């Protein structure tokens, strides 16, 4: 029998032989099991998971309530296709999400499988509702890897490569990114200019925005910007879509990040932590908007899989019973305080930002030039992994260290891991050439 170390090496060889290189891997390890905020690889090494499957595991790995709900559904049936034979978990989960979405108007929800599908369907619904073709998204954004998802995404490197031509009638406006010189005022001026130079407002079906960028580096859209964006879209009959695929489900301390601004969008796209690790996504929106497509216009064979739909209500139960939103706020305050203190010692930390427990550090070569330091982030991630912490980077330049730790992490573990992580950042930064 192969040793664990030999198994890892053998699997790495098989991965190289049988899986395309286009599927990148952040860490050269293979998972064996996971629980809560911890993960063990096939060598038996334990890690504290600060990635959470890229924000999928806000209530942690293998939460017992979710696992029980899934096992109960598994014993009944795994698939009928909702368009053929309906099932109660789909309806019950839609009912609960409609009640949670901001705004007093009646809501409706459709379930799908991936975040990209949620985005694509939101655009379909917006075009059907407004009878307009164009869509505006923002620079630095990420909205999926499908053709329309890539077209909407505001980052070319890696995601777009030579995959074009891309979907037509998609336009980009600058995201407000104060640290990089894009104030709310400047971004709004650019949007108005786009209406004059790129596409007239009366041709725009929807504006889609992440209230806090995910892959773009955890940049928060200021509340004043979102409120003015809502005013502009309403004035021109444009639908506003909040992409909450990474920022939703308590990650920012509110159930949806858009709630921090008081803005009520027309639609919200959700996925990731919706089903506690099971593939499920959705679009929640005003009923009159959601009903715009005629029968047969929405759906999918696996859309709203019954196993994943059974997990969804269990996730919501955990939020209520374990006070996950309060936990996100408290964790976010703790991490922010530690990182702001560390920033005073480490000049390479150019910015500390984020809402709730959607926190990030932007690393630079020099605080005045703000030149991105992606190599420093790579070194921190590698050293953290060696010391049992899994991290992930983000941002246009790959120089942002993002934190997506499960919100159920134990307090004792938080203190210990933060001590280790801060020491790693401090030591790694000290070794970098000035």
TrEMBL record:
A single BP term in Gene Ontology: gamma-aminobutyric acid metabolic process
GO MF assignments: (S)-3-amino-2-methylpropionate transaminase activity; 4-aminobutyrate:2-oxoglutarate transaminase activity; identical protein binding; pyridoxal phosphate binding
Pathway membership, UniProt: Amino-acid degradation; 4-aminobutanoate degradation
InterPro entries referenced in this protein's UniProt entry, alphabetically: 4NH2But_aminotransferase_bac (IPR004632), Aminotrans_3 (IPR005814), Aminotrans_3_PPA_site (IPR049704), Class-III_PLP-dep_AT (IPR050103), PyrdxlP-dep_Trfase (IPR015424), PyrdxlP-dep_Trfase_major (IPR015421), PyrdxlP-dep_Trfase_small (IPR015422)
Keyword Transferase found: yes
Tree of life domain: Bacteria
EC numbers for this chain: 2.6.1.19, 2.6.1.22
This protein's UniProt keywords: Aminotransferase, Pyridoxal phosphate, Transferase
Record Gene3D superfamilies: Aspartate Aminotransferase, domain 1 (3.90.1150.10), Type I PLP-dependent aspartate aminotransferase-like (Major domain) (3.40.640.10)
Reported cofactor(s): pyridoxal 5'-phosphate
Catalytic activity: (S)-3-amino-2-methylpropanoate + 2-oxoglutarate = 2-methyl-3-oxopropanoate + L-glutamate; 4-aminobutanoate + 2-oxoglutarate = succinate semialdehyde + L-glutamate
PROSITE patterns documented for this protein: AA_TRANSFER_CLASS_3 (PS00600)
Family assignment from sequence similarity: Belongs to the class-III pyridoxal-phosphate-dependent aminotransferase family.
PANTHER family reported in the protein's UniProt record: AMINOTRANSFERASE CLASS III, LEUCINE_METHIONINE RACEMASE
Record protein name field: (S)-3-amino-2-methylpropionate transaminase
Natural source organism: Dictyobacter aurantiacus
